[in-house]
Amino acid sequence: MTKNKENKQQGLTVLTPEDHFFFECHQGLDCFTRCCRNITIFLTPYDILRMKNGLKMSSEDFLSTYTATLVGDSGLPVVALKMQDDEEKSCPFVTSKGCKIYEDRPWSCRIYPLKPESTKITEKSEKEYYSVMDVSFCLGLSEDKVLTVKKWKEEQGISIYRAMENFFKKITMNEFLSNKKISNKNIQDMYYMACYDLDRFRRFVFESKFLKLFEVKPETMENLKKDDVELYKFAMRWLEYGLLGQQVLKVKPDVIKAKKQETGIE
Ligand code: SF4
Ligand code: SF4
User: What is the rounded CA–CA span in Å between residue 225 and residue 216?
Assistant: First the structure.
């Protein structure tokens, strides 16, 4: 029995940031890289931003080479890492020495062996809870190294992922979408582009009539041209505007005037 299971027997089934757990992953273990095979890894928009930049690929090339798209409960697309077509269904980035994109590995690879157990209610009160995953083949769970949840999150660089995820959650956790099933292909594509295909979204902003419709400050435009994180945050605002109907972008006065004339509404 791993020491983490002993924790559970003592009634410690969810951990706060200060609670401890036992885990150490290293090359000397027989299970090394076993966890990088035959798994489903859903990717967040920020995962894709980091991975495609780490690999120096465009978002289009990254998505077509390494991902598969599925449809989530809301009808909106979700993106998963495409495992290789070998016997073990290996992650495309696993090598005998470990992860070849370690600096930019996805959030779920970082947080393992912890599993977030927070709910909307606990998140609102800024409380976090985690459990330790019970994975039979993972020998790291039987090692003696003691970690706190807080320390593990720091070591794994989780905070930037969490901060970036909050922009995305504003869309996915919005009540407006909770009982909806989106089936409109244009909306699905708009969402996919804004969340996952950032280089295409950049072209959409600069090469379509977007800038004729919306007021965008010159310094914001400069940032959007060169900074993917700013572009991602802007894309999430565009979804808040277009998908959730929130007035977070400003339509140009002449566009509003023309629309009023066209519809006869004053
Ligand atoms: S210890 Fe666990 S996380 Fe580390 S390689 Fe083995 S299975 Fe993977
Ligand atoms: S991205 Fe890296 S850590 Fe994650 S499954 Fe693939 S090889 Fe393993």
Answer: 12
